[in-house]
Input
Amino acid sequence: MTTDAHASAHAHAHHWEWSWAPMAVVAGTFFLLPITFAAFFVYDNSMATAIAGGLGVVLVLAGVAKWVDEGLTQVPLIANVSTIGLPIFIVSEIFIFLSLFASYWMMRLGVTSWPPEGTPEISKIIPLVMTVILVTSSFTIHIGEEKLEHGDRSGFNKWLIITIVLGTLFLGLSMYEYNHLIHLDFVPSTNIYSTAFYSITGFHASHVFIGLAVFIAVLIPSLGGRTNKAFVTCASVYWHFVDIIWFFVASQLYFW
Output
């Protein structure tokens, strides 16, 4: 067998693929959500909350970065598996959001007056501005995809950076709103509305954060000349999903 033939046979031979990225993301999510929430709401321990939240963020970012690196450097055994698996993942995410909305609807429809006592006047201008920002970001990432499709890598990088800036601005407005409401003594434990408000908006914000982390993980190698189009497509579809979910979040929590 020649060297080329041996190399070809080795390339097509069955081999196991493994990665610690999924475990890191799952563990990070576990620390970031249930452990952090339990430390804060159940045990009222600020130190444990900071440790669990910090560890969760590090693990999630490490897992996302590793997964992106593998997508850029490894050839999968099954072609287009990411574009097949993504819709399944999004459906699972829809059910999680649906469970949160169902809980909110049960609380909302089970009382005679709304909002409950202790709820301050919540601005409707901020969610409208946030909606415009997210809708705009969907257009910018789409333009970036079009640039990449036509071989314009610098154009793709530019529009991806714009998308990241818009997503960061969205999170910044969320933090501004949280800070304002907390100073009005509207915290997660104030009433049933505050619990639902922070849970649903916080869960959505965590998805925006993950989307930004994926975009940054795509941008860094792209600036160096490496890009996986399937990866970009999956990241873009996920971002569009997060944008669509925001319409339900804003309409139910702010305008109903």
Summary: The chain has a mean pLDDT of 87. The two ends are 72 Å apart (CA to CA).
